[in-house]
Specification:
The protein is an alpha+beta fold. It has eleven helices and twelve strands.
Length: 347
């Protein structure tokens, strides 16, 4: 059968004009993220960045990519998409600083069945806000309209961040027995464990629009609290001296992420009584009947980043981080042996 009148791409479900409109809408937000080194941003076939212009003499590049997992499902179901872009940026740039790198630029991939301009603008404005707060330029990305691939209103996000450090400044380094573990408080569940979170919410019988049992506002809004950005505070601590390593506490919790920055033969002793388990985690544990070990291996349990620091610098770095707005907890120390050993109980 021949179609006499001819089909258009728009009739097949892809609106190029809408994509162009989106680019124009987000240009002001992207412009606010500009930093030294940016040469060309949105609109070209590729984005250009000048490392010398950013002040580097002998740089090593570091790259990271991530998404936000099934936290997207809550954002989609509630229509609250304004901060999910912050999560996307945080999951990438918080990883970069653990290598000792300063995040330089960010690219996003946004895919959906049908491009809804208002929602897409809110999502990407959130990405730009995360970049701006991290000193990272949003210099490119891809918006893919793919009819038949996603249900109505569904979308997916992926992020790509590139950072740099001067040669020889990479972390972790010089981690030793007796180093102190400083934990920085999280802003909630962040962006890991949401398949379990959603299962627990189902079991509880609550809906996203119901009041949150552990916080003001709705359950959906409380569980969408964006991932905390630790970039500027952590980099300032590294520059101050005495930081031997950083661990971003994501999937796998303290149990699996902290050993990633410890040399062979060294482990960590952590006192669970040194901080109070935030109400959201207490509620999840109670509703899901979760064992303490499962909580510590699945969620951040209230600690989003750990700094491994020399003992003689622990007090000064604690004061510096607190002055920068962080809630700092002395979790324990680096010790001989493998893995993380816990004493006390989460309270």
């Amino acid at each position: 059968m021949t179609i006499k009148n001819g089909l258009t791409y728009a009739e097949a479900g892809v609106d190029i004009d809408a994509g162009n409109t989106l680019v124009e809408r987000i240009k002001p937000a992207a412009k606010r993220t500009a930093r030294p080194g940016v040469m060309a941003g949105l609109g070209g076939f590729g984005a250009l960045f000048d490392l010398k212009g950013a002040g580097y003499e002998d740089p090593i590049l570091v790259a990271a990519t991530d998404g936000v997992g099934t936290k997207l499902r809550i954002a989609i179901d509630t229509g609250n998409v304004d901060t999910i872009g912050i999560d996307l940026v945080a999951m990438c740039v918080n990883d970069l600083v653990c290598q000792g790198a300063e995040p330089l630029f960010f690219l996003d991939y946004f895919a959906t069945g049908k491009l809804e301009l208002d929602a897409a603008t809110r999502i990407i404005n959130g990405i730009a806000a995360g970049c701006e707060a991290s000193g990272c330029a949003l210099i490119g990305g891809e918006t893919a309209e793919m009819p038949g691939m996603y249900h109505d209103g569904d979308f997916d996000l992926a992020g790509f961040a590139v950072g740099a450090m001067e040669r020889g400044a990479d972390l972790p380094r010089d981690v030793g027995e007796g180093d102190v573990l400083l934990g920085l408080a999280s802003d909630g569940v962040h962006s890991n464990g949401y398949s379990l979170v959603r299962r627990i919410v189902d079991v509880s019988g609550l809906g996203w629009a119901d009041d949150a049992p552990f916080a003001d506002g709705t359950l959906g809004a409380a569980l969408l609290a964006p991932t905390r950005l630790y970039v500027k505070q952590a980099l300032d601590a590294v520059r101050a001296g005495g930081v031997h390593g950083l661990a971003h506490i994501t999937g796998g919790g303290l149990t699996e992420n902290l050993p990633r920055v410890l040399p062979e033969g060294l482990g960590a002793d952590i006192d669970l009584n040194s901080w109070t388990l935030p109400p959201v985690f207490r509620w999840l544990a109670d509703q899901g009947g979760m064992a303490e070990a499962e909580m510590l291996k699945t969620f951040n349990a209230g600690i989003g980043m750990v700094l491994v620091v020399s003992a003689d610098r622990a007090t000064a770095l604690t004061e510096q981080l607190a002055a920068a707005g962080e809630t700092v907890v002395s979790l324990g120390t680096v010790t001989k042996g493998e893995g993380v050993r816990y004493t006390g109980t989460l309270v």
